[in-house]
Amino acid sequence: MLNFDYNNFSILIVDDVPKNIQVLGSILRPLGYNVEFATHGKQAIQWVHQNVFDLVLLDIMMPEISGFEVCEEIRKIEAYNDIPIIFLTAKTDGDSVVRGFELGAQDYVSKPFEANELLARVKTHLQLKHSKVLLGETNKWLEKVVTERTADLVAAQKELEGLDQVKTEFLNLLNHELRTPLNGILGGLSIIQEYDLPDDLGQFINMLDVSARRLEKFSYKALDISALRAKGKGALRLEELNFPEILQEIKTEFFEIAKEKNIALNVGCFQDVIPVKADKVKITNTVSYLVENAIRYSEAGSQVHIIARAEESHLICSVRDLGAGFSDYALQHLFKPFCNVKHHVDSNAGLSLYYAKLVIDAHGGTISVENNKPRGSIINIVLPL
Fold this sequence. Notes:
Elements: E1 10-14, H1 18-28, E2 34-38, H2 41-50, E3 55-59, H3 67-74, E4 85-89, H4 94-102, E5 107-110, H5 115-159, H6 164-192, H7 199-231, E6 238-242, H8 243-260, E7 264-269, E8 275-279, H9 280-296, E9 303-311, E10 314-321, H10 328-333, E11 341-343, E12 346-348, H11 352-362, E13 366-371, E14 377-384
Parallel strand pairs: 1-2, 1-3, 3-4, 4-5, 7-9
Antiparallel strand pairs: 6-8, 9-10, 10-14, 11-12, 13-14
């Protein structure tokens, strides 16, 4: 749970009836809220130009300047863009409610005040404001980390071509400089996701979580690539694989993603037990990346097939989609790292196919890509049994 310190929040009460101000103050001050008040609209406008409050309780029916007009003036101040405004009113007709929301109010509290309801609404909107501030800071931090680390990764990858010492430094960089802040970001996001947040904030948190996990996946992929380039087969941890089980796990992993695009994800194994000895993590990652790309570039309502079969002394695993396929130029450059070629229908400078090539080569197998007819592509992985 986020720490909620009442003493950190200041509230401005705007009401032309002193008794109402007294009642509200007696409800809020005992909890530790810092409370100020204004008895008319002009005084309230002066207050908000001089101070930034965390929340405004604003009466609608006031002489000279109504609460609606005060709300409109407050929203003209940049510092008050995200400050919650709660109207205090005995008016409950639909027009007043709609007008208040159109002017930027967040909520209504009806007179006479019910203490528990008032406190619950005040605390909810202050927590929401506090969460927005925290999310903004987290987002800026995440953007900075992503920018800095991605630049570091690209620069390091170029130097890895012929420098074994740089490869070692790159591994250390990923281990200590990238994973540590990523673990902190993901851990913080997991805590925030435990809150019962409004839908818009929940969607924003999920977006940050997806971005951080995407960066995490990229870091692991880059780390594996460095190890495979440096050690080749020595980077593998070989074991007997249950290949049909692996394919079912991959189908489960991408079932919801495929479902969102109305894509049928079909898995077929033409032998119950396919006796292959390989690195389970790297082979699973390889097929997962290929399936992920196939779903991404397939049209809604189409199909993606993952088919495995034993043939003589080899295991053949095929990933087929019905997307736009590859251009001739792309087919000549697919396995080059950071190569800006047209992959399916857009530019993709990723590492998935390059990673797959390194993994399959280390296993003594082959990987090939071809366009399917009349539409789509086929990626074949061949591993020795």
